[in-house]
């Protein structure tokens, strides 16, 4: 049960100290948006390179960008320990996942709420994680979509059948109120932005979320 706070809700003028505030988390989730795949623009490779130099924990890059086939592998090459591309944007996901792994990172496939998982189940041998979005990607602070829980269950079942160490991540609206149903459905990596950085103590929020997830293990 791993917690990956999203720095999208952190203070962008003080990212080093904001990373320090979640040093008890398992990952730091970094949302890269290009204003094309999603209607928002955040940060790109140069900033991720700088974050990698100062982060006390590994970085989980969530790339909400067009043409990940071209732009995703450099994040792995820079040292991001996990790189998620969106299946809706990838043209050759097998080659892309292999490129990411060849750079030593975990390869992950993200799926938007409206995208079914079934057609992509065959990709599991190429993947280390599947990210099931529980909001429409683009912004922090949106409401959790409970209707994505059957998809989380479906991914977890497929992972069980397939075997291997493939993680199931949820991202969007995850909080103390919603994390238990995610864990029960089979998620084991939990992204939380506003629930962590909006809390009085980010570190305490991380610990609380992890405890809640552990108590509702699938
Ligand atoms: C949304 C991003 C999320 C976002 C989550 O597109 O992928 O990582 O930061 O924020 P919360 O936890 O506030 O929904
Ligand atoms: Zn994200």
Automatic annotation (TrEMBL):
Q: What would be one Pfam family of this protein?
A: Ribul_P_3_epim
- EC number(s) recorded for this UniProt protein: 5.1.3.1
Query: GO annotations under biological process?
Result: pentose catabolic process; pentose-phosphate shunt
InterPro entries according to UniProt: Aldolase_TIM (IPR013785), Ribul_P_3_epim (IPR026019), Ribul_P_3_epim-like (IPR000056), RibuloseP-bd_barrel (IPR011060)
Quote the catalytic activity from the record: D-ribulose 5-phosphate = D-xylulose 5-phosphate
Name the keywords, alphabetized.
Answer: Carbohydrate metabolism, Cobalt, Isomerase, Manganese, Metal-binding, Zinc
Kindly state one GO CC term assigned in the UniProt record.
Answer: cytoplasm
What does the function comment of this entry state?
Answer: Catalyzes the reversible epimerization of D-ribulose 5-phosphate to D-xylulose 5-phosphate.
Name of protein: Ribulose-phosphate 3-epimerase
Biological source species: Janibacter indicus
The lineage is: Bacteria, Bacillati, Actinomycetota, Actinomycetes, Micrococcales
Which gene codes for it? rpe
């Amino acid at each position: 049960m791993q917690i990956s706070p999203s720095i999208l809700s952190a203070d962008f003028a003080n990212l080093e100290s904001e990373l320090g505030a979640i040093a008890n988390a398992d990952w730091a989730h970094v949302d890269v948006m290009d204003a094309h795949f999603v209607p928002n623009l955040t940060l790109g490779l140069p900033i991720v390179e700088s974050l990698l130099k100062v982060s006390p924990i590994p970085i989980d890059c969530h790339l909400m960008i067009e043409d990940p086939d071209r732009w995703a592998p450099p994040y792995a090459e820079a040292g991001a320990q996990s790189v998620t591309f969106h299946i809706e944007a990838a043209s050759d996901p097998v080659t892309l996942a292999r490129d990411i792994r060849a750079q030593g990172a975990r390869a992950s496939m993200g799926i938007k709420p409206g995208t079914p998982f079934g057609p992509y189940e065959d990709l599991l041998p190429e993947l280390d994680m599947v990210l099931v979005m529980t909001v429409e990607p683009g912004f922090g602070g949106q409401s959790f979509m409970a209707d994505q829980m059957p998809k989380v269950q479906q991914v977890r079942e497929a992972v069980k059948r397939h075997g291997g160490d493939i993680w199931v991540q949820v991202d969007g609206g995850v909080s103390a109120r919603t994390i238990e149903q995610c864990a029960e459905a089979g998620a084991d990596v939990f992204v939380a932005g506003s629930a962590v950085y909006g809390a009085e103590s980010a570190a305490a929020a991380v610990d609380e979320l992890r405890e809640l997830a552990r108590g509702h293990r699938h």
